[in-house]
Amino acid sequence: MAGSVLPPGVSRRRFLSAVGTAGGAGAMFATMGALGLAPTAHASPRYEPPRRSDFALTGRGAAKVVVLGGGIAGLAAAYELTKGGYDCTVLEAADRPGGRNFTARGGTVQTDLRGDTQTAAFSEGIYLNAGPARIAQWMVTLDYCRELGVPVEVFTNTNASAFVYNEAAGMRQPERIRTTKADVYGYVSELLAKATDRGALDSELTATDKERLLDFLRDWGAIGNKASGWRYAGTSRRGYSTDPGAGDQAGVPLGPVPSLARTFAEGAGRYLSFDFAYEQAMLMFQPVGGMDRIPLALARALGPRRLRLRTAVTGITNTADKVGVAFLEPNGTQGHLVADFCVAALPPRVLARIPHNLGPEIQAALGKWQIGTAAKIGLEYRSRWWETDCRIYGGITHTDLDIERIWYPSHGFHGPRGLLVNYCYGNHARQYGDLAPDARAQRAVEQGVKIHGGKHRTELASAFSVAWHLMPHIESAWATPPLGTPAYQLLGKPAGRVYFAGDWLTHLTAWQAGAFESARLAVRQLHERVLSP
Ligand SMILES: Cc1cc2nc3c(=O)[nH]c(=O)nc-3n(C[C@H](O)[C@H](O)[C@H](O)COP(=O)(O)OP(=O)(O)OC[C@H]3O[C@@H](n4cnc5c(N)ncnc54)[C@H](O)[C@@H]3O)c2cc1C
Ligand SMILES: N[C@@H](Cc1ccccc1)C(=O)O
């Protein structure tokens, strides 16, 4: 996973299936066309938007439900159940709602499982979304933002002005994404055009197809014509060393253009597919002021009576007609609560450690999820030198360094200060987690200097980091589900009166949308049961 631009765990499969789905739809329309059944504009739109924001429970349920965990899944389950008439109590071990949805601001204190305590020294207006930070347009998360009145703004996931840098491949210096893109598209186009023109693809293409493909490649790769041998010889798309301006200033195109061999040897092209992913495509969004605006809004909607913080669940007992939950009160005394149903919205490994009587099959199933980790290191700077000096306004630099990527802020442009985020997965996250917080920041700064030079060090004002396997009560960044297995099927259904929820129970692991969707599924199942005669 480390250094990979692919999504963690299941994502390669998901990425491939997304490509397959697009192809499938195209093929379906082609077949319909051949049969004379092509959809007309009024009869069936080419794209039917999924109906996501119409979640409403029919009828009212009066049962009492105890929800374990006040992350997005637990809060959303309680929020929807409360709307449906249920009497809900959420038990959350931490002193804040949100779980992995954690935003650090000036004054935020966090102690990790190593015992290191950090107090964020960020200035006014500076924050680190240490967990979730971006939301795709199709995700149900945005519907909750709308419903809860959480304003959103654009999150810049891709920026041609940001860099790619592969140190191990011998890149002498970071390169703008636009430059890599131009060269990679250019050379791929040149090769494909040559192969097409020489007849290497004659068994695949008709003469008309070939013409159309060559036309496309000339535009897509900015390559020459047949007479020039379809040559890629650079393009203004690569950028300029002196920008075009007034009068005689035509601009000085960036040069020299690396050879085809060099372009592929440097391997920077592998970062270009990042935003092809359904989950990662621009535009993306973020709540104004920090991602924790979402759990805070859910908590507000629930009210303090329904959400008990600093309350750690210690036991679950399922009986024929009730569920008993044991917990530790904030003052350390033992508490106990009895409800008609329970929604367990805890991470799978954490849940597996809580004594319960749900049976060995449930216990074994909980062990089948593959745990992944990630770390975010937020570096606050005294000036926004990436805007003034590098002309980077948001977006992501991708590297093969152990920091993996650098995020530039998508808000607060031209403000006095800003925060860069180093974000890595897997082993790199563990390596950063092994360091004390100051040492993490120092190491991340040294890596970033390779991209940005001295200001990456000298302008640093403060730092705050989270290595997610060290986060109390959570102990991971995400868990990859054993999709299609009996374990996945088993936990998708209630165990007696206990329902399970969390992003780990969906095809959207590592996304809040998964937490919301799983909560909605559990709520629907529970409600149908309560209303069934
Ligand atoms: C680094 C990182 C980046 C991410 N990026 C994105 C992103 O850009 N966009 C996006 O949409 N999603 C992102 N995600 C995923 C998103 O954070 C999760 O999908 C979502 O927040 C999971 O919510 P949940 O309620 O299922 O689980 P959690 O948030 O893990 O909630 C579980 C809750 O249970 C509590 N708990 C544990 N033990 C007990 C106990 N004994 N008693 C009581 N409570 C207990 C925990 O404290 C926690 O609050 C990211 C996650 C990480 C870590
Ligand atoms: N959702 C998380 C984790 C993730 C990373 C990359 C791909 C898929 C998921 C993020 O966007 O940062």
Automatic annotation (TrEMBL):
Entry superkingdom: Bacteria
Binding site for FAD: 92-93, 131-134, 313
Binding site for substrate: 134, 423
SUPFAM superfamilies, A to Z: FAD-linked reductases, C-terminal domain, FAD/NAD(P)-binding domain
Domain Amine oxidase: 72-526
Cofactor: FAD
Single GO molecular function: L-amino-acid oxidase activity
Entry keyword rRNA processing: no
Organism classification: Bacteria, Bacillati, Actinomycetota, Actinomycetes, Pseudonocardiales
PANTHER family per UniProt: AMINE OXIDASE (PTHR10742:SF342), FLAVIN MONOAMINE OXIDASE (PTHR10742)
Any Gene Ontology biological process: amino acid catabolic process
Full protein name: FAD-dependent oxidoreductase
Keywords from the named record: Oxidoreductase
TM helices/strands, residue ranges: none
Record organism: Amycolatopsis dendrobii
One Pfam family hit: Amino_oxidase
Database matches in PROSITE patterns: TAT (PS51318)
